[in-house]
Amino acid sequence: MEHKNGENPIISNEPVIVINDLHKSFGELEVLKGVTLTVNKGENVAVLGKSGSGKSVLIKILVGLLKPDKGEVIVLGQNVGELKEKELNELRLRIGFSFQSSALYDSMTVRQNIQFPLVMNKKNQSKKEVTQAVDEVLDAVGLKDKMNRMPGDLSGGQRKRIGIARTLILRPEIMLYDEPTAGLDPITCSEINELINEVQKNYNTASIIITHDLTCARETGNRVAMLLDGKFSSVGKFEEVFKSNDEQIKNFYQYNFIQNKL
């Protein structure tokens, strides 16, 4: 599949995430050392970095699960660090989070899993409206025929798709993907990358895609942000970032892209 770093007409100049000089330490360990990034409405930004580089810490700060030591995060016009719990919960309803593990409830059918956030958060919806919403997102991820199955009956890729469908049910403005292709075979990885692009196009979401998979970053990211030594050392189109003479970036590319060519 051709990567999509080119011009994309649905991306606007309106920022939906603004991260400014973000610092976070745990005891003596400095994880984030001045992270700065802006994500615009309708834009996919792939955040690349080694394990332990602070990618997951960044996501947790974005949704208010961790507080930064310094710096600020503005999400959908709101300063996350200043929000009270009720306001934070309201903001989180506007953000879809796709967990690495898919985080499905094994005791519920696919349908029950998907309708759960809707039933919990939008109690005024009729049964018919809930059914329509479930059908629509299952259609969007191509698994309408699995609605009565249990998560344990699904493949890893199908579980990932159902997890994404469950986040889409609340019509989020921002999607956060945590290692969306981890543990999947190459064909399923390609299908998930395509789904991320379809979600961007059909739901006009802005997304941050946390990954160490270079193929995922290349195929889904309008821009790529390389997290090294606690900062974004390079941000731009995939080819621009990896034309760098920075030894760490070159090493990251060579280590992760042994089987793939630009």
What does this structure look like?
The protein folds into two domains: 7-94 and 173-262, Rossmann fold (3-Layer(aba) Sandwich); 106-171, no CATH class. It is 36% helix and 24% strand. The chain has helices at 55-62, 85-92, 110-121, 127-140, 156-168, 186-203, 214-220, 238-242, 247-256, and strands at 15-26, 29-40, 44-48, 70-75, 78-79, 95-98, 174-178, 206-211, 223-228, 231-236. The longest helix has 18 residues, at 186-203. The radius of gyration is 18 Å and the shape is globular. The model has no long low-confidence stretch (mean pLDDT 88).
Summarize the entry for a quick read.
The protein is α/β, with parallel strands linked by helices and 262 residues long. The chain has 9 helices and 10 strands. The protein folds into 2 domains: 178 residues, Rossmann fold (3-Layer(aba) Sandwich); 66 residues, no CATH class.
Give the arrangement of secondary structure elements.
Blueprint: E1 15-26, E2 29-40, E3 44-48, H1 55-62, E4 70-75, E5 78-79, H2 85-92, E6 95-98, H3 110-121, H4 127-140, H5 156-168, E7 174-178, H6 186-203, E8 206-211, H7 214-220, E9 223-228, E10 231-236, H8 238-242, H9 247-256
Parallel strand pairs: 3-8, 3-9, 6-7, 7-8
Antiparallel strand pairs: 1-2, 1-4, 4-5, 9-10
Helix pairs in contact: 3-4, 3-5, 4-5, 5-6, 6-7
